[in-house]
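User: Predict structure, ligand 2-phosphoglycolic acid.
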Amino acid sequence: MRPYIVANWKMHGLLADLQEIAAIDQAAQRCDHVDVALALPATLLFSAADAVHMARIGGQDCHQKEQGAHTGCISAAMLVEAGASFSIVGHSERRADQAETSTQIAEKAQTLQSRGMGAILCIGEDLPTRESGGAEDFVCAQLDRSLTFDNGRIRSDNLTIAYEPIWAIGTGHVPEIAQITAMHDRLRAELVTLLGERGHTIRILYGGSVKASNAQSILALDNVNGALVGGAGLKAETFIPIIEAA
Ligand code: PGA
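Assistant: Predicted complex:
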């Protein structure tokens, strides 16, 4: 599977940062065996899409409805018009801050797919769940709910899963390699159970404090097919070594 390295800029980035995007795009052109993507704030999409040749540009959320009275939200059609080809859905920060449910997240992914866009669907456990020993069961149940749409399953095409333990996001604490391996192997098996043989073709990204110094050992794992990178994805200087590690 082609590795997929995605920067999640969260609520960071102004027009002045387009030079970082241009530099990251140059690395994407150089490392053409890697799919490189940037999930940007909506205000940067138009200009970023203009500035890149190779890197994919995407959003960080997409409303499940086509349009309507949803103040402050962005639709799939708006994302497409702004130059996005994918969006993150269900990031743990949105599950927490905007109280998004797995059912809504499945709807969002379905809406993106119906527009021909990619969905990067995030799942992950908090620290008490990890410490209780129930992380794998919790994350698999969350995956199951987040893939359930209208009592059926969302499509497997244009779908990427990102496993991000909440306690690893922005903390510098990365799970042990054995824990990442166990979770990703379990998620692969779960995807095949839920979606059939096509579950083998879905990329599973790891996210949470990925940086140049740990990228190689994480990306070398069998069922780790890429990374979702927050802090280290904001600057070309820290993001490019992760692309190169892939
Ligand atoms: P981090 O964030 O790399 O800063 O830990 C990852 C994410 O939230 O996607």
